[in-house]
Specification:
Number of helices: 7
Shape: globular
CATH architecture: Orthogonal Bundle
Strand content: under 5%
CATH topology: Globin-like
Distance between the termini: 41 Å
CATH superfamily: Globins
Number of domains: 1
Order of helices and strands: HHHHHHH
Structural class: mainly alpha
């Protein structure tokens, strides 16, 4: 069975996904302050992480070590509002890809779980 990375077309898919996501994020008043002024490094990190997570090359870990997502996001206030804003932009980016329903659902379920796991402020 092929990995999702292979099924969706590899690096070009994830590069486009991240670009769509960041296009929404760039003007989001709730999320934009959590990101650095220049977004290029953040885009690259997310793209490499997603490629690796979904079965692509291990470039992310080779360059940055273990993902440690909770630790890397701990300095930022991530509450329910931030989680839903992030998920709204990522969901739109995924849906715009026009993937087969099963691949779209697999991505969306992962992103919902990941967003929930990074929440670090009590409701």
């Amino acid at each position: 069975m092929s990995s999702l990375y292979e099924r969706v077309g590899g690096k070009p898919f994830f590069t486009a996904l991240v670009e769509r996501f960041y296009k929404g994020l760039a003007t989001d008043p709730l999320l934009r302050p959590l990101y650095p002024k220049e977004l290029d490094a953040s885009k690259e990190h997310l793209g490499l992480f997603l490629e690796q997570y979904w079965g692509g090359p291990t470039t992310y870990s080779d360059q940055r070590g273990h993902p440690r997502l909770r630790m890397r996001h701990a300095p930022f206030v991530i509450g329910v509002a931030q989680r839903y804003a992030w998920l709204r932009h990522m969901t739109a980016a995924v849906k715009a890809a026009g993937l087969p329903e099963s691949d779209e659902q697999e991505l969306l379920e992962y992103f919902a779980m990941a967003a929930r796991s990074l929440e670090n402020v009590a409701r």
